[in-house]
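Re-run with default settings, no changes from the original entry. Doing this only to confirm the output is reproducible before filing.
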Amino acid sequence: MDDEFFDFETFTASFSQSIVSENDDSGSKATGEIFISKPNSILWHVKLPTERILLIRDSSISIYDPDLNQVLKSDIDIFEEAKWIRVFTDRDARNRLERIIERSNSSTRIIYRSLFKDSRLREFVINKESDKIRSIAIYLSGKDRFEITMERVEINSNISEDYFYSLIPADAEVIVQ
């Protein structure tokens, strides 16, 4: 079963993300770190080109902009392109998805389709090498896609629950959407 991909309590990694749009062949790039603590905490810290902190707890998302000292809080379902992240923390969500598993000597690839009946998402692919997730590709409608490469992956390291809130200042202006 595909739960071997998600057999962890915590997950940390640095990442490089490329976004390629069918309207813009040059795409955009971002780098940062990701922290996951099951059952429901994900911190996506984008450091470059512009710092942003995305905190996902249960079904809510908070996006912090340090330049404005503002947090936009909303339900994650508002952001169609972010629904795939639930695959990491929600076993029930994974079980509802059509999936194909491809194995070779050095890697395992799992392909998800029909992600939460998302009309924009065509396919979600996770590549695993040596028992660690190495890359994620999210294919949207048309030729749009996200490609995320993971480095310095650590599984089951100690992450304090407080860490997920420590990067967002208490005095930040909160905007609820």
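The chain is about 5% helix and 55% strand. The helical segments are 91-95, 163-166.
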